Amino acid sequence: xxxxxxxxxxxxxxxxxxxxxxxxxxxxxxxxxxxxxxxxxxxxxxxxxxxxxxxxxxxxxxxxxxxxxxxxxxxxxxxxxxxxxxxxxxxxxxxxxxxxxxxxxxxxxxxxxxxxxxxxxxxxxxxxxxxxxxxxxxxxxxxxxxxxxxxxxxxxxxxxxxxxxxxxxxxxxxxxxxxxxxxxxxxxxxxxxxxxxxxxxxxxxxxxxxxxxxxxxxxxxxxxxxxxxxxxxxxxxxxxxxxxxxxxxxxxxxxxxxxxxxxxxxxxxxxxxxxxxxxxxxxxxxxxxxxxxxxxxxxxxxxxxxxxxxxxxxxxxxxxxxxxxxxxxxxxxxxxxxxxxxxxxxxxxxxxxxxxxxxxxxxxxxxxxxxxxxxxxxxxxxxxxxxxxxxxxxxxxxxxxxxxxxxxxxxxxxxxxxxxxxxxxxxxxxxxxxxxxxxxxxxxxxxxxxxxxxxxxxxxxxxxxxxxxxxxxxxxxxxxxxxxxxxxxxxxxxxxxxxxxxxxxxxxxxxxxxxxxxxxxxxxxxxxxxxxxxxxxxxxxxxxxxxxxxxxxxxxxxxxxxxxxxxxxxxxxxxxxxxxxxxxxxxxxxxxxxxxxxxxxxxxxxxxxxxxxxxxxxxxxxxxxxxxxxxxxxxxxxxxxxxxxxxxxxxxx
Length: 653
Prior knowledge:
Blueprint: H1 21-33, E1 41-49, H2 53-60, E2 70-77, E3 83-89, E4 94-101, H3 112-123, H4 126-134, E5 142-148, E6 162-169, E7 181-190, E8 195-201, H5 217-220, E9 241-243, E10 246-249, E11 252-259, E12 263-273, E13 276-292, E14 304-306, E15 331-338, E16 344-365, E17 372-388, E18 391-400, E19 405-413, E20 418-419, E21 428-432, E22 435-438, E23 440-450, E24 457-466, E25 479-486, E26 493-494, E27 503-512, E28 518-524, H6 538-542, E29 550-554, H7 576-580, E30 591-601, E31 611-623
Antiparallel strand pairs: 1-2, 2-3, 3-4, 5-6, 6-7, 7-8, 9-10, 10-11, 11-12, 12-13, 13-14, 13-23, 15-16, 16-17, 17-18, 18-19, 19-31, 20-22, 21-22, 23-30, 24-25, 24-27, 26-29, 27-28, 28-31, 29-30
């Protein structure tokens, strides 16, 4: 098989671009024209239903027709709870399919309108209000925090659309209620019937009194002095070029998209080697994330939130601001999504792109020749930030001059709070008087649709192997590398192992470099814990992807989400375990690599009242992909901005 190039400029027909405002309007009109859209009907999700990869590549190569442009629409009737999964053809202007969702394998994601309705439902409920008054809390001072319910086989929840609700006291309009949890209490609400299904009232705690208003100078303290401005400038402009959703920078070529569920999507990444663009990644996104909590209290045991599958975190993307969220020569991309009435809405500056200096690229001072050379690394940064309730998440994709790809998640915002028991707790950290932050994890899944030098790919698990003392290792210093091919999906769920430096090589089984070895990219995990909940737990069944750091599947266009298609109230078993049950071959074929990464958070006092950013991620590096160092030709850098005492050292060290 020859190397397949991504020729995204071969035609003017839009194949993979995100939906435009006109297209979203067209989708709504097509659905409305059927007469099935009631006054209480809502558009939960509207997104591009991407065509099969083979169709796209054939079309781009000029050997196949343009794929049909399809849109997936999830609908919910707020009055009846009836949900539908509709496929709309923009190409033909018709509905291709319309099937009911019965809820047995999960429900559609939660609407913002449903979240907003929870407070109204509870405001008039006497049981809820009485429980608040019993704690000395005026119900009118309470804000309700609605949360996804999970799945726990609770008898009176069968067939219902459930939201679980915590109460927080807000002392004044500018007060952050997270500082004042009204704990020991939880409401289970049927949001369609607009009724309280159950009230968990197991213990009364004092409401923590200390405010958490980090924006208040009285709490933040006087401004830090002595920090002088940092200005990042590129007098000749940035090095990248942009044409719609298509980007070229240094030797990289790619396009981007944005989706209400996955947020930022990178597409068809290729690297120019000599005169040829060589494919590396067909598609990359954060396809799921979940936040499981560790507190087993009767009102908290169910806490675990799938911010993509249950909440559609892309729709909460921030409009980024120059100088605050991004520094330097910035190019912003807007994101156009559907609102819950099916009308287009634009998030301005949803995606930020810029270049960053990244220190030394390579350097050597030679003992024998006296040659001393140094070159500076730089990277292209493509990112977005989303706020889901209390947490703020930034997702940053970095492309480096040497062909490296890196993904980094940044976690900040306000950690979820609880009342800290007077007797202490093995499941929380006390961060203010009577205020606890429960232990929890953040576990992301990156879906990496690999295409290293073409479609014929495989994964080799590579790790250190010690060599015992013996005839071939008399002094005991030897060690070597052990490589094992993952040949089928039955072998495709893998653990990281820092003790042997385990990594995974995504290799092309038909292409070799000049040394005769397969061209490859290597995935370096960060070796952090996977899911810590018991294997028998509900969350382990629903988020099976979190139990391994690596999953490898055969490509199938419908297999998009690691925890399954409909995550909200899903009983478990969908997603990656179901995809891999067919035990398809993975050797020399079109594969998808799913990588689980994240953080285990034992909160600190320093994490309150607003959390300094934590980081996690992974790296993809070329391994035998190039014939030699691909950045020997990067020019030397000089600077006009050194301080006067250091002018003789302004050449890139």
